[in-house]
Amino acid sequence: MKVLYVAELVGKSGVYAFRKALNELKNRYPWDFMIACADGATGGNGLGRSHAAYIHKLGADVITLGECCFYKKDLTENMDKTPYALRPDNLNSEAPGAGSKIFKKGKDKIAVMALIGQNCFNRLHANNPFASLPSSLERLRNQTPYVIVDFHAQASAEKKTLFYAADGLCSAVIGSHTRVQTSDETILRGGTAVISDAGRTGSLQSVGGCEVNSRINEYLNGIPDWTKEAWDALELQGVYLDLGKDGRAHSIERVKIKII
User: Fold this and answer.
1) Is 32 left (phi over 0), alpha (psi -120 to 50) or beta?
2) How much helix, strand and coil, in percent to the nearest 5, is found in the chain?
3) How far is the C-alpha of 124 from the C-alpha of 69, rounded, in Å?
4) Residue 34 in contact with residue 6, Cβ under 8 Å?
5) Which residue of 40, 80, 234, 236 pairs with 21 in a disulfide if CB–CB is 3.0 to 4.6 A?
6) 71/46 Cα distance (integer angstroms)
7) Of 33, 37, 38, 39, residue with least CA distance to 4
8) Cα 22 from chain centroid?
């Protein structure tokens, strides 16, 4: 099973970069299943329903979300009608939508779960991601050996700890949220592929995909503004996984495609 994970799309420039990179992606990284993180695809924070449908139409089998999952009302109110969009699984059961699902691809099934960390998120109150991790992964593995976790978290220590807690219980844990691709991709002893952050899809000459001056002004005046995305030096980032029939990872490769 070949799995392509497209790192967080940031703004219209990120969606554009995703579309422009598709032909090269197909040639270099032929995939059986594609996951796209789109927590900042609409205006730099959150995901609107139309953007979700467009990203899915372009080829993403599932879209993962993080702390911005409920920022756009049109998607929040239609989460149950958007089965390919996953909000974090460790939210309260009353939250709309689902945090994990089984997807069928040909004769195979693959499970995807989104989780969110507990450090530095003050607008979304999540449950401890470690508490139910073993039972949740066991439930998914009973249905398929292929299980991918998107762990949306700020602190690298929390990410690293969850990697080891999940080792041997799933195929891969892919870190997201910081929008900076790390170079620590590896396969742990139990066969689980991990990376602290897959990066971002959008402008590299930016602050997390957002226009530089808007970020500088926030530090000067204290007024948040994530709506001004940047368009310089566009790049698609992510990771490419090769999974064995037993669900263990054979390889994990960082993906970087410059948009010319």
Assistant:
1) alpha
2) 25, 30, 45
3) 9
4) yes
5) 236
6) 5
7) 33
8) 17
Torsion angles phi and psi, residue 58, rounded to 5: -70, -15
- Indicate whether this model's pTM tops 0.70: yes
Please list the pLDDT of the chain residue by residue as tens digits (260 residues): 999 999 999 999 999 999 999 999 999 999 999 999 999 999 999 999 999 999 999 999 999 999 999 999 999 999 989 999 999 999 998 999 999 999 999 999 999 999 999 988 878 889 999 999 999 999 999 999 999 999 999 999 999 999 999 999 999 999 999 999 999 999 999 999 999 999 999 999 999 999 999 999 999 999 888 778 899 999 999 999 999 999 999 999 999 999 98
- Listed by start position, the domains of the chain span 2-258
Residue 233 vs residues 16, 17, 204, 260: alpha-carbon distances, Å: 12, 10, 5, 8
Instruction: Tell me phi and psi for residue 255, to 5 degrees.
Output: -115, 130
Class of domain 2-258: alpha beta
